[in-house]
Each structure stands twice: as C-alpha cells, then as structure tokens.
Design a protein that fits this description.
alpha/beta; two-stranded antiparallel sheet; single chain; Macrophage Migration Inhibitory Factor
Length: 115
C-alpha cells in the first residue's frame, strides 16, 4: 500500500499530470517490490512553498509503505522521484526533500478496516 504524496509550488496548469502519476506509480511499485494495484500517488501543485529562502521551483514528498523500505531502496526512490520532478516540472533535484515512513499494517486503514 505505498502512498507517495507530492507537493510543489509549481503550477500544474497545462502540465500532463497523468504522465507524472503513471511514471511515479510504476517507479514506486518496482522499487519497493509491491503490486502497482496498491500504489497511490497524490500530486498537489501551486502549494505556497519556500526552500532556502526563495520561492523558486521546489517540492516536498512523503512516502508511506508497509515494509519494502530500507536505505538502499530509499536512495533509489529519492533519485527516481527527483528525476521525474526535474524532467516533468523543472524542479531541481537540489530543491526536493522526500521523507520515508515504514509503518505497520495496523496503522493504515483500507477497505473499511486496516491492513
């Protein structure tokens, strides 16, 4: 049940968000080793955001997963998602943070229950 929540100060107006969602979804599934059917991607644009004292393009993300995360996977995910944001939204890799949460199934609700 990986969920990647991305926020950026870049406007998404006129942007092909479907390609961002699709690429992020397949990347997360592949790198974490979970079925893509359970991957959720949330993308929010035009979020007021400053990084390093400026409002130049920047992004912040949080990825929650039940297992599948470790230092090697996290490093690969950070690089892959940074590449997507840089190529699709012109957010420099140096202006993106990604926080990882490895949680227990009992801490996440789905289908009217928990995992």
């Amino acid at each position: 049940m990986p969920c990647l929540n991305l926020s950026t100060n870049v406007s998404l107006e006129g942007v092909d968000t479907s390609s961002i969602l699709s690429e992020a979804s397949s990347t997360v599934a592949k790198l974490i080793g979970k079925p893509e059917a359970y991957v959720m991607i949330v993308l929010k644009g035009s979020v007021p955001m400053a990084f390093g004292g400026t409002e130049q393009p920047a992004a912040y993300g949080e990825l929650v997963s039940i297992g599948g995360l470790n230092s090697d996977v996290n490093k690969k995910l950070s690089g892959a998602i940074a590449n997507i944001l840089e190529s699709k939204l012109s957010v420099p890799k140096s202006r993106f943070y990604l926080k990882f949460y490895d949680t227990k199934g009992s801490n996440l609700g789905w289908n009217g229950s928990t995992f």
